[in-house]
């Protein structure tokens, strides 16, 4: 199981890099250093276009596979962070929703690596928005995102986050600031999830002709409604969350039997 944990920690660190990049681009956009908020797909495409970008993208794909593996394993594994064998069902559902979301990001990475275009997706998105079944799916996704947001806020203010990090090789000060990064980052991540849930449900309700996807849509909505400073504050929190994952991956408590 030790190799499983290493693979999972690599996945967590990879997730942290992705979140840091998303937060960083949104942060510099808030202060007019770039013209618009970039999507996850744009960021991954930019990485792929750099020297050795394909190698980096392959590493991200492997990391995402590791993270998805850990989420699916934790969905069906009853062992909890405190060592008990009675993991709450709501947390197991959250793990499963998380895995599905990162499967979509993994798909995006693979299509970029293979050089596929996203034109084929437009007809699928149009079908989803114009069909009753598609709108039901959007509402279900929105509810899932709202549940994830509530879960992030709960973790931010509860003691469960303390049990997610092992104190081995960490001083008390390092542990304290790592948890501070995690609490603030998770709180802001929850705001992004809740905003995206609202935007997605709103698109389905008002029959809008665009399918919102990715954190960039949430940041755009926050910027339009609350202004650049609020957007920059939340983007900075997402950067903190990414930093927390990268630094804390080595010390992450992964309850695998």
Question: Notable features of this structure?
Answer:
257 residues, mainly alpha, 10 helices, 0% strand, globular
List the helices and strands and how they pair.
Blueprint lengths: L1 H29 L9 H10 L3 H24 L12 H25 L6 H11 L1 H26 L2 H4 L8 H34 L9 H12 L1 H21 L9
Helix pairs in contact: 1-3, 1-10, 2-3, 2-4, 3-4, 4-6, 5-6, 6-8, 8-9, 8-10, 9-10
How would you explain this protein's 3D organization?
With 257 residues, the chain is mainly α. 76% of the residues lie in helices and 0% in strands. The chain has one domain. It is globular and about 50 Å long.
Proportion of residues in β-strands: under 5%
Number of domains: 1
Helix and strand string, N-terminal first? Answer: HHHHHHHHHH
N- to C-terminal separation?
Answer: 7 Å
Q: What does the radius of gyration come to? A: 18 Å
Total beta strands: 0
The average pLDDT is: 81
Point out poorly predicted stretches. none
> How many helices does DSSP assign?
10
Structure summarized in a few sentences:
The protein has helices at residues 2-30, 40-49, 53-76, 89-113, 120-130, 132-157, 160-163, 172-205, 215-226, 228-248. The protein has 257 residues and is mostly helical.
């Amino acid at each position: 199981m030790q190799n499983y944990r290493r693979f999972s920690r690599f996945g967590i660190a990879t997730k942290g890099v992705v979140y840091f990049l998303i937060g960083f681009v949104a942060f510099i956009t808030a202060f007019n250093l770039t013209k618009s908020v970039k999507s996850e797909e744009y960021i991954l495409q930019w990485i792929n276009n750099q020297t050795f970008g394909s190698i980096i993208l392959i590493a991200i794909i492997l990391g995402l596979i590791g993270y998805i593996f850990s989420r699916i394993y934790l969905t069906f594994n009853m062992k909890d962070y405190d060592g008990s064998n009675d993991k709450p069902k709501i947390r197991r559902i959250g793990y499963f929703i998380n895995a599905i979301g990162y499967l979509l990001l993994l798909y995006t990475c693979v299509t970029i690596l293979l050089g596929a275009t996203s034109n084929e997706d437009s007809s699928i998105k149009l079908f989803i928005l114009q069909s009753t079944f598609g709108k039901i799916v959007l509402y279900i996704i929105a509810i899932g995102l709202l549940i994830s947001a509530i879960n992030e806020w709960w973790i931010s203010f509860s003691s469960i986050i303390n049990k997610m990090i092992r104190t081995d090789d960490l001083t008390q000060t390092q542990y304290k600031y790592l948890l501070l990064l995690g609490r603030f980052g998770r709180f802001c991540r929850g705001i992004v999830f809740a905003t995206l849930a609202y935007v997605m449900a709103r698109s389905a309700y008002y029959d809008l002709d665009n399918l919102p996807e990715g954190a960039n849509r949430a940041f755009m909505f926050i910027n339009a409604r609350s202004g650049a400073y609020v957007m920059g504050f939340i983007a900075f929190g997402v950067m903190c969350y990414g930093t927390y994952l990268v630094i804390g991956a080595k010390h992450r408590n992964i309850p695998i039997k």
